[in-house]
Design a protein that fits this description.
This protein has 282 residues and is of the alpha+beta class. The chain is 36% helix and 25% strand. The chain has a domain at 1-142: Bira Bifunctional Protein, Domain 2 (BirA Bifunctional Protein, domain 2). The strands form two sheets. Strands 1-5-6-11-10-9-7-8 form an eight-stranded mixed β-sheet, with helices on both faces. A three-stranded antiparallel β-sheet has the order 2-4-3, with no helix packed on it. Helix 1 packs across helix 10. The longest helix is centred in the first third of the chain and has 20 residues, at 16-35. 32% of the residues are buried.
């Protein structure tokens, strides 16, 4: 029996203090983004293309349209925003800076509020990462920024037949150390930008190239509380190289990266409003 006051597990309810905090977060973010030349877009709740954004299609909440085509509730905003700007708005706009404040939905009844940013045609990840830092600073939130490069785990799997991407998903340190490769051991424990230089002379050239990309982002960031995580790997359909997460203990406040949709390289991030609301109202 479902009582009258019950809401589905995973759905969000904001009232009083929490609703005020949510609105404050969204207002601060929108003001900062507007000042940086971003325009707002609100995409449809229903989408034909969510399978291109979500690695596990079982997470999609699917229905059918009037012509019996399969559609799903918006489970991710990035690819839909890029497709709508490129394919639908097309020549009607020259704007490349966009943000959105809207929820996403995953099976069975999970709702997640996000503030998302896409800078289309831009390769420099620091251009949006520093805006995320600016928003968090304005909210007086001081989490840790973790910088990764998803290409490094993929390259290591190609170099060592003993390794799989699952080893990186679960951070199988013991297996990495058992390979008894000195430069790999140093790579495992790489955390700070000053440690990169001593690695550059001993790692293979392909790894060196990716480390230099990480170092460049560290130099360009406006956040003092930054660490490197070169062994971090998470399967995502569009973030597949330079990547960052904003974390506090076990909570992720934001994440973003550089990605490619067809031939267009872009950068973006998403701030997870629900996690921030909880932190600010405690």
């Amino acid at each position: 029996m479902i009582l009258e006051h019950e809401i589905p597990n995973g759905a969000k309810l904001y009232f009083g203090k929490s609703a005020k905090a949510k609105r404050e977060i969204e207002n601060i973010a929108s003001n900062i983004l507007d000042a940086n030349g971003f325009e707002e877009i609100v995409t449809p709740v229903f989408s034909y293309h969510q399978h291109l954004s979500i690695a596990d299609e079982k997470k999609l909440i699917k229905v059918n349209d009037a012509k019996n085509n399969s559609i799903s509730l918006r489970a991710d905003s990035t690819i839909d925003v890029v497709r709508i700007i490129e394919k639908r708005l097309g020549k009607n706009t020259q704007q490349s800076k966009w943000f959105y404040i809207q929820p996403v939905f995953t099976y069975p009844t999970t709702e997640q509020n996000q503030i998302g940013v896409e800078l289309m045609g831009e390769k420099k990840l620091s251009s949006v990462m520093n805006i995320a830092v600016e928003i968090l600073n304005k909210l007086e939130v001081k989490p840790l920024i973790q910088i990764s490069n998803i290409r490094i785990p993929k390259l290591l799997v190609e170099m060592f037949e003993e390794l799989t991407l699952d080893d990186f998903r679960h951070l199988n340190i013991e297996k990495f150390l058992n390979l008894k490769v000195e430069w790999l051991k140093k790579l495992i424990y790489l955390q700070h930008i000053e440690q990169i230089d001593e690695l550059l002379d001993i790692v293979p050239e392909l790894i060196k190239k990716e480390l230099l990309i990480m170092k460049e982002l560290c130099v360009e960031t406006n956040c003092e509380n930054t660490v490197l995580a070169p062994m971090y790997y998470a399967k995502m359909l569009y973030y597949d190289e330079l990547f960052f997460r904003v974390i506090n203990k076990n909570e992720v406040y934001a994440r973003g990266g550089r990605y490619k949709n067809e031939d267009l390289t872009s950068v973006g991030f998403a701030i997870y409003t629900d996690a921030l609301c909880e932190a600010l109202t405690k």
